[in-house]
Amino acid sequence: MRRVLKVTSKGRITLPKEVLSLLGVGPGDLISLECPPGSRVVIAAARDPLSIDDFFGCLQARSTTTLTIEAMNEIIAERWSGRR
Fold first, then answer.
1. Which distant-in-sequence residues (6+ apart) come within 8 Å of 16 by Cβ?
2. Ramachandran angles phi, psi of 33, nearest 5°
């Protein structure tokens, strides 16, 4: 997607709805600008590193193995008793 934006006399631009939607931001959200060497600017949604989205992301299963409560209790009992 390529867009050409007009800069106002106050140095402001308006990002199109498509861009805001792509970034997943809305009114009141923050946007981060990075200016690496060269003539490009990187725009991204500014996310709080401790956001609830990040928390839920860490809970995603890394394995497809599931255990029943009984199996978990058995493993816990074995570990507490020192058996392996």
1. 3
2. -120, 130
